[in-house]
Structure formats: C-alpha cells, structure tokens
Amino acid sequence: xxxxxxxxxxxxxxxxxxxxxGGALRAVLPRQIVQAADWSTLKLRGxxxxxxxxxxxxxxxxxxxxVGESKVLLYLLFEHQSTDDALMPYRLLRYMIRIWEQWIxxxxxxxxxxxxxxxxxxxxxxxxxxxxxxMHELFDPLAVQAAGEHLPGxxxxxxxxxxxxxxxxxxRAASDLATLATLFLKNVRDAPDLGALFMQWSxxxxxxxx
Length: 210
Fold this sequence. Notes:
The protein is of the alpha/beta class. Helix content is 39%, strand content 20%. It is built from nine helices and five strands; from the N terminus they run αααβββαβαβαααα. It has helices spanning 6-15, 18-26, 31-36, 88-106, 141-147, 166-170, 176-187, 194-200, 202-208, and strands at 37-47, 58-67, 70-79, 116-123, 157-160. α1 (6-15) packs antiparallel against α7. The protein is globular.
C-alpha cells in the first residue's frame, strides 16, 4: 500500500472497521436491506478488486452480512477523482464478477447459487454525480426496450457526498469516526479554509479524540 493516496489510506483505515462501515452503509442502503440485515454479523471479507490502472482513483471494501438464512455481500467503492466514471456500472460488473470468481474458488464443492452482491458507490465528484447508475443506462434505449429482460440491469446505490451538506452527513446514525472520515472525504480536496471547518466540527472532534 506504499503508493496509496491519502484518500485511499483514510478510506481503508476508517471504513475497514465493521462498526464504522455499518453506519455508513445503513445511511444509504434501501430500507428493506437495512431492516432485513443482521448488522451484528457484518464482517470485512476483502478488498482490491478494482482495475489496476484505477487504483489511484478508486478504493474498495467488501463486506458480508447475514440476511435471514442467507449471506449478502456489500461492495463499497469510493470514487475519489473529481470527474465521474461514465462506465461505472460496467466497471462494477467487472468487479462483481471478480468477487464471484474468488468466492467460487473458495468453495469445497461446486456451488449451485451465488451470493447476492449489493454495490455501493461513494463519490465526491465536482458538481455531483451526473453519469449512469444502472447497466441499462449504458445501452441504447431502443435495445433496452426490445431486450431489456435479457440484458444486465442492476442499479448501484449512490452516496453522492458532493450533493449532501455537512449537516446531513453529521446527522447520520454512524459512529463518530465514520462521520469524521466522511466529512474529510467530502471536504478535504476543495475546502478553502479547513480551520473554519474544524471549528464547526469541534464537538465531533472532541468526542473522537476524547
């Protein structure tokens, strides 16, 4: 990890801890997933599924959580470049296939079912996310209309930090460390006066470093 960026190091240090990741994930996942999951079972399974040429602009973590009798994989990808990836759903599909390939290789017997993967993208691109959030958006609309049920069509969960105020992020039911890390990821690149922000975050900083 010697070549990791500061964003990458912060993301891994903070969100690789299930207690921190759990709050961040519960804040953005659909309600039915949040309510169905047993968050006490959340655990880190791995990372580093991104394309090698994008490791400077993308960081990822893979978690597992129990949902009833099943286990669901939650794939958290942090996009820390200033521009959106126009092919993000396609890239996520590649990463998800790598995850499934690794999972299959770990099984003692050939599996009949694959674990569900819910992809979550955390982004702070300039001006907010403006690109596709589903695979269907990457195909010609006429092709989707004619053959949609035969095409990959998943939609990823988007946590657009750029479009969320600091107040919204601080109001999330996440750990203080996760909240502070999220605020840093949102603000550190463009904030004109970090000192002023630290003053605003003073109660949070006091709790973290108490």
